Structures are given as C-alpha cells and as structure tokens.
Amino acid sequence: MSGKKTNAGRFFEDYRLGDVIIHASPRTVKMGERALYHALYPARHALYSSDIFAQDCGLPFSPLDDLVAFHVVFGKTVPDVSLNAVANLGYAEGRWLCPVWPGDTLRAQSTVIGVKENSNGQSGVVYVRTVGLNQHDEAVLEYVRWVMVKKRDFGAAASVAVVPALAKVVEPSALVIPQGLDFSRYNFALAGEPHRMRDYAVGEVIDHVDGVTIEEAEHMLATRLWQNTAKVHFDATQRADGKRLIYGGHVISLARALSFNGLANAQMLAALNAGAHANPCFADDTVRAWSEVLEMAELDAPGVGAIRLRLVATRGAAGDLRGADGKYLPEVLLDLDYWAFIPV
Amino acid sequence: MSGKKTNAGRFFEDYRLGDVIIHASPRTVKMGERALYHALYPARHALYSSDIFAQDCGLPFSPLDDLVAFHVVFGKTVPDVSLNAVANLGYAEGRWLCPVWPGDTLRAQSTVIGVKENSNGQSGVVYVRTVGLNQHDEAVLEYVRWVMVKKRDFGAAASVAVVPALAKVVEPSALVIPQGLDFSRYNFALAGEPHRMRDYAVGEVIDHVDGVTIEEAEHMLATRLWQNTAKVHFDATQRADGKRLIYGGHVISLARALSFNGLANAQMLAALNAGAHANPCFADDTVRAWSEVLEMAELDAPGVGAIRLRLVATRGAAGDLRGADGKYLPEVLLDLDYWAFIPV
Amino acid sequence: MSGKKTNAGRFFEDYRLGDVIIHASPRTVKMGERALYHALYPARHALYSSDIFAQDCGLPFSPLDDLVAFHVVFGKTVPDVSLNAVANLGYAEGRWLCPVWPGDTLRAQSTVIGVKENSNGQSGVVYVRTVGLNQHDEAVLEYVRWVMVKKRDFGAAASVAVVPALAKVVEPSALVIPQGLDFSRYNFALAGEPHRMRDYAVGEVIDHVDGVTIEEAEHMLATRLWQNTAKVHFDATQRADGKRLIYGGHVISLARALSFNGLANAQMLAALNAGAHANPCFADDTVRAWSEVLEMAELDAPGVGAIRLRLVATRGAAGDLRGADGKYLPEVLLDLDYWAFIPV
Predict the structure, then answer these.
(1) Which of A199, A257, A309, C25 has the fewest Cβ atoms within 10 Å of its own Cβ atom?
(2) Which residues of B207-224 are buried (b: 16+ CB within 10 A; e: fewer)?
(3) Which residue in A28, A33, A197, A261 has the most chain B C-beta atoms within 10 A of its own C-beta, making it the best mutation to test that interface?
(4) Domains along chain A?
C-alpha cells in the first residue's frame, strides 16, 4: 500500500522560521454548532444563549461561543502543527478580535515564529502564531502556541535556535471590545447572578461547585466537530492502556462552562494569556473547576470591564495547584489565564 | 475558597407564597436543537419532521417539538426550583399555548402557588406554576409542578400550609389549538399510519413494540442541551453506587417518540394533565412504552380532534402498572397523562 | 394489549412486483444535521465544510453531505423494507441526482422491481428501487437495494421469481454533474491535498492511516438522526450477546470521512456502483479504511473528472480483502464501489 498521498504530519525539521502554513478545510459554522456546543458543555452564559440578551448588550444577535472560534481554528492547525507533537507546551498572546456570527466561514493560517531543538537531538520546540479569519478576511482570533515535535532524523544537525519574546499577559489596553458592546442596560436577573466586576476582589477564589463525569462518546463528538484529527483522541489502539486522551480544549470548554456558577457575568472571552494542560484527562474522570481573580480593568465601552481570571480544572475535588516541588498536583488538569468582559 | 458567589440552590424556607422567580439564561432555539432532538430520540411525527407536512396542516412551517419547549423551560427552573429537591412529585394543568418556531427566544418564570411542610420537619412540598415566554412575551407553555425540597434549618417553625386546588385533567375546551391548524387535507401515507381518532376506542391499549437502550452520553447530552443543571444527572460521584440518575424528561421524550409506532397521528401535544416518574431510570436500561386511550373530544378546528392518552414507559417488557399494594411496579418508569391533537 | 395499530414490518409475501411504497415522515434537513454529521464522522471535505469553498466551485453554497441524503432516504425505507430483513444483500445503480441544500424537505418512495423466494421456503429476496425526492419533486438520489426478508407463512406457495438486470457499474456518461460545478479555480491548499485526478493511477491503493474507535452512543445518535428504526441498532435485548449491531451506513460514513486522508479532493459522491456490508460492526471496534483506484473519466464540466474507487473499511489493520476461499476476511466490514467528482 502507498502512503505517499496521506498526511504523515510534519517533523521538527519541516518547520522553518517565517514559514506561513495555510490550514485546510475552511468551515462555515451556524446554529447547529451552537446547539451541539450546548449539548456538549453545560454552557449557560446568557449572551451566547439568547439573541435578545445579546441585542440588549448592543450586539446584532448572539455570536457563537468564543471557544467555538478557538476550537475550529485550533482544529485546523492540528494536521500541520501537532500531528507528531509530543506535547502541547503553552499558549500566549491569544486575543479574540471579532465575534463569530452564525453563517461565518472560518479558515486558519499559522506563521512559524520560533524553533529550538532539544538537547537530546530527538525533538524540538516549534512556536507558531495562528490567526483565524472569517469570510471578510477579518481576523477573528489569534494566539501563539508552542509544541514539542519529534525530529524525523535524529542525526541531523540542529538549526539555529530562535525563541520568540512573548508577553506574559495581554495588556487591558490591547483587548478588542466587540463593536457595539454595551453593558449599561445589563439584565442581571436573566444573566443568572447579581455580581458585577466591583463585587469581586483580586485574590478571591471561587469554587464552581458542580462536577461533570466525561464519557468517551462526548469528547470524541466534540473533538471531531472541530475537525481535530489527532489520533490519540479517537483511536483506542494508539496507547498501550487502550485509553483515548481527551483533547485539552474539551477540558477548557468544560471548565469555562462550569465557571458559570459564580462567574455568570464574565460573559465574553477577551484574551488568553497563558494555559497549561497540567495532566492528561480521560473518560470517566469527573471534572470540577475553580477560579481565582487575578486583575481587573475598566474599559472604554459603556459598562464594560475586564476581569482576568485563573481557571483551574481538576479531576476530583478542587484544592491546591502545585505540590512542594513546584509541579502541578496530579489531579490538576488545566491552568488557564484569561481575560473576560464583565459588567463593571 | 469562597462559596458565596455560587448558587447552592433554594431550601424550603426560601419559597414564599406568591413569589415570582425569574429564571436565568434565556435561550434562542433553532434547527440545531431540532436536529439534536432527532438524534437523541427516535422522533418521527411528520409535523415536527417536515416543513411541507406542517404547511399542509395549516402552519407556516414545522415548529420545534413541543417537548423541546417543555425541556427548555423546565431546565431553566432547575437552579431555582429543584437543585435541592428530594423528589419531583407531580405535574398538573400543563398546556402548550403557542408553537415554538425556530429562532424563538424562550425565557421562564415561576410563581410559588403552594407550600406545605412535611410532618418530619425536615422538608416540605413546594408548588410552582411555571410559564415559558417567547420574545414577543407570548406564553408558549405553562404547567404546575410540585417538588419535595429540604429545609435548611430543621428546627425552624413551619409556615402555614397552602395546597393549591389543581384540576385533575385539563378540559378539552381549555386546549389551545395552534393558529391555522387544519387536518382536513392530512396526508396519512406520509404521516406513517392510517389511524384517525375515530379508529381508536377509549380503553384501547397500544404496545409500542420498540425498545431503546440508553447510554450515559446520550442522556447527558440531552439534559445539558436543556441547560438543566441538576448534579445527579452529570456527576457520577453524587451517589454511592456511582450511577447517574437520568432526567425524567429524557424518559418522557423517549416514550413519546416510541409511541409513534401506533400513534403516529397523535401529532401535537396539547396538554399535560398529570405525570409521575414512577421509578428512577439509569444508563443501560432498555426503555419500552405503551399507551392507553383515556378520552377523545372533537375540537373547533377543521379535522382536528383531541385524544387523551396515558403514556407508560417501562424498563423491560410492557405489563401491568401497579402491584396489589397499589404502588407502581418496579419496572414502571413513567406514567403520563396528556392530550394530543389528532385528525378526527 | 393490541398490536393491530403498530407496524410489525412487511414479510416476503407482502411485496408484489411493481408495488410503489410511499415511505413515511418526510424530513426537512438544515445546518443542524450538518453540524451533527461533522460531530459523528471525521468529515473534512472542504466542499461540504465551507460555503465559500463551495461557491468557488460554482455552487450557490455548501450542500449537505451526499451521505446525509443517502441516510435520510435509506432511513425512511427501513420500516417498509427491512424491518424483518434477515440480511442487507447489496446496492446497485445508485446515483446522486441533485445536491441537497439546507432547508430542503426530503421524502422517499420505493418500487418493488424483483422478488425471488429462497429454496428453503422460509425467506426470499426483495429488490427495490428507491428514490429520494425534494420539495420540488426533483429526484435527489436513487439506488437499487436488495434484502433477504422472512416469509410470514413458510407453507405458502412461492410466487414467480423475477430478478432484475442491474448494471455492475454506473457508466461515467450517466453521472449527473451538479449544476454549475466548476473545478477550474479549485483551491488545493484549502482543500488539504495537492493531488488531482491525473496524480492517481488505476490500481493504486491508498491506506487512509487513521482509525476511529466506535462508541454505542455515537452510532445510535447517528442512526436515530436518519430516523432508521431497525431494532437491532438500538435495543440491546434483541441479540443473545447483548450487542447492538451498527447500521451499515454508519460504517460507510466513517470510511468515507477517513478517506479524506489521501483522497481529500474526491469531493462529491456521484454514484454508488455496488456495496457489501461484509461483516457486522459493533461498538469498541476501531475502524480503518483503504481505497483502490478502479477507473477514471473526464467529464463535461470545467476541471471536473470522475474517479471510481473501492472503499474498504476494516476492523483493525488494513490488509487483504478476501481469503483463499473467496470470502471476505472476518476483519473486513465494508466493500464499497463508488464514483466521486474530483479536479482533473
């Protein structure tokens, strides 16, 4: 049989600084994707649930969840960026730049902004800046992601290492407020909670209480919906233990949805400052979440503030984040640092 | 960690007669929800499957399944009504008042119409009348539901008991016929069965033959889609036996869809007279259903009659309903009493 | 209990040559069905993913996947054709005649074109030609299918056997090119692979590399979505081993989606020449696929060719098709022969 027409994925040597990769399969997203998003995650933020609520917040109607945009764009990059990835190491400088409306067609492209071979000569770290674009060529989302990728030829000489300088946090002034967003007539009763930005304090920690036990069918439906093709999520024969590794983004969406309970008014994602998939997640895990308020900022839109949150997903009870050795505790699945728009 | 911003649910003492509760997360429902409904339940009633069939019945196009309306409205009430419920005791005076069209935005509110503390002093029964409203402030659905709720403080003095007088059955004259509904050109071949109202007899019992084995992923997808947040449906650590309790509404939808086989022309739900979730349902249960014709009525719309049915869902083979002691047999899951519109 | 109003399915004696069967439950399909299709199968063909890509190929927007049309039409036939089928024996002369657009309402009818009693006197083979029609009474799909059906009365005299003459392969000149289809400005980067028709060779075999492990919930959601009511797919009590048999069409869709990897440009299905469900498929099976190029043809539309492919789905590794005895090897699930439109 011939393998020459199938995609075996890129290896470390295949990435050169400045390369621009056009990712395949542009995708039109509509209300079907939204319905599925609500079936897959316990999402209840009112602005993504109700056209009327969104209109009362100055938008033409309810956009698709910001994480739908993220997953669709991320999924497109997988065949080109992470098919041979050993590890998904981090995110930085992520920003949502424009809402995704039902009917929009998204495509994605990535620029290689850093490469650094590991000292073992068997793999290296690749940094890409990915941008998602809509049918009007407007950027809807951008983020930097770095992954560890295997070398094809362990004996090949190392290229010059280039590690990009990345901001630890997106500055509040760099957040892009969706056109028209206005929280001055915000309906707290319909949103589900009375807490506005000023009711939170930096350092406050919120246990989101609820837990969700994950089934294989659920994470596979979700991951396929985003056209993410990484074998480990779908093929039980890939690992010796027969387990399918759950796409890290599934845990992000679960945790974000669970955070409704205590952060119902942190309506829209604005930026992804950093993120770590601390430990792998598998079916039958019961996922819980807690948040810590890191920072707050007033913004130049009526009634709109920005709240910076650490969102932690755990397997089992919420608790500490790291052990005495500084490493993530084994029950920690996700440690995400993001900005959200919230009524001030 | 702080729990003060999260919703711990209301306790018995938190309900006062006449209170009006505005439920959170209004929801725009479209064709995505309908596609999922058809994936989750073996729904085949033609009026909810085909725009053309619905138009031939005098409607502008095919509405969302009446149980979508019910589940969306019910789901919204859960955080405020049944998060601490010990048991879902009953339904009465339910009526579908207006079809829900794709694109409609639903919200829900409940009025406390009864409270009665149990003699043990540890819980009480709360009666609420819930109404679902669309974006035009039209009521699309209303029903009374009563639940047993824990007291927060077992030592607190009992309030005055008020038990509302509820109709045992909605009168045929109180059924609201959707505007334009006309069964005079009804296509029985496309609907799937030749039986009109006059072909049924009061007392006739119909075994719906088919069975469906339930998976955890399915009932969780469904229950989440309705934004129902009750922990027992999602979190396997909530019960000592590690089982997730299946949302009673999931069994209603399963049984109603199964009833197509023998009642394909009982097209639209008109009223919910009474309902009991007789025994809990769990994944791996194989659900079957049977119906009994209770009553029939001619209505003031062309070709439209109303048939009152008892719909019983069972785990395993259909059989008797109650034992010698008058209690539901253990294999009975649901005993529902409803009106449907059917060609006369 | 009465069974007289429920559908027990037809037996062999119930089919008479020339009978036309109108199948129930016409169905309006929209973007919700498409979103579910992408969640259920790893579908990435760009023309069914992006309105913009489809427009660049001369279509008004992205149609629903051709296999959505097939499954919807096939599902409608099940209560009338295969409820008592012992085996699904074959397909022939299948052609997609018109794209299905979101919002279309499909219905189906079948004509009995052959009946042949088996020598054992207990069953017979029924041949039907099924056509799917849209709301404009345009045929969107037609195919011949033959099934083995039980006799009701084993002692009844055999009818005269009529076996229709069926083409082994649809001729390229009989393929119906969707109106406007134009691959002259085809974007290979967005489609995901550079290979055009001329890059393939007759006899070339392509291993599609990826594998998907199937869950019970997934195949039941899919099969229900197509309103397919065959008990064996849903009811774990139907077989002694407690297994649910997976709808053969689920395997077709899985294999077709997997074939993206190596055949990303075989965009649209044109004809179904033949097909065999070689062995039953069950949950926990990991499905892989390989294709063999059988034939190619240039067509009378700009840049459009037709490629005839054998698509084989296997449980476990791809390998040989038949054993020394000429029978399918036990790991072979599907052997499909189809035409697809591809850039020349």
Answers:
(1) A199
(2) bbbbbbbbbbbbbbbbbb
(3) A261
(4) 9-29+64-163 (3.10.129.10), 194-344 (3.10.129.10)
